[in-house]
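Bench notes, afternoon.
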Amino acid sequence: MGAESGIPHSAPLTFRRVRDLKERVIGWALFSCAALSTLITLGIVGVLVTESFAFFRQVSIVDFLTDRQWTPMFQDPHFGIMPLAAGSFLIAIGAALIALPLGLMTAIFLSEYAGDRLRGVLKPMLEILAGIPTVVYGYFALTFITPLLRVVWPETDVFNALSASIVVGIMIIPTVSSLSEDALRAVPLALRAGAYGLGATKLEVSTKVVVPAALSGIIASFILGISRAIGETMAVTIAAGSLAQLTMNPLESVQTMTAYIVSASLGDTPRGTISYQSLFAVGMTLFIITFMMNILSQWVLARFREEYQ
């Protein structure tokens, strides 16, 4: 039959071999991309660990974690991470107080109240916030938000943690709202229909049925948003200043871990010195914090995820 039609009997076999070869090539290409990403991550971690180990051979890890001063460039240097960590968490907490409720309320509106046409307009506009360069946010805080704060509280420093918290909170609203909306929209319509059948209002359905059902995804979005706030660099560098002091007053200037890395890595720190190695110690601390928060978000998703059939 094949000979009569002019098609050799080996043609199907050749086609399968070519197809299998293409699949192997695609598989190896995808594996190479995954392996490259893993190797890059391992390389970054390796550099951080190596330089941090050299730093901790000269500075006690106990002093690093408990000293209340961070003065690496002084004649009598102190390498206490507490002022930098306090500044990072102060701004992250302030940003969370702004972004988490606004992001969740925005997600509820987009998921439960907005129609398809309105959602198609509002969601891209909201995501524009994520595309604005962080340097722009920093100068916006310095030239617009800080003058407003000084009208209300004249004692506010030019560089202060509160203005940095406000702009970082605005920055992470898209992260919180987008992830929370995905979690809310994943709740089956049957739960909503059942609540409406019992006479519940739209607000009751949203807050007492949909939000509790999507709680694991919402909490994970909160954790990822806070992790994003802790790792923010340029906005807090411009808005919060570079004064490493242990304070909980948001009207004062502070320095975060990321801001120190930026300010100390501008070329003025000689390579191989303890000040240079302190950059990697701070970076390692920041890496551990954000890594643990990402693990926590994954654990929350796995532990409290609701399975619907």
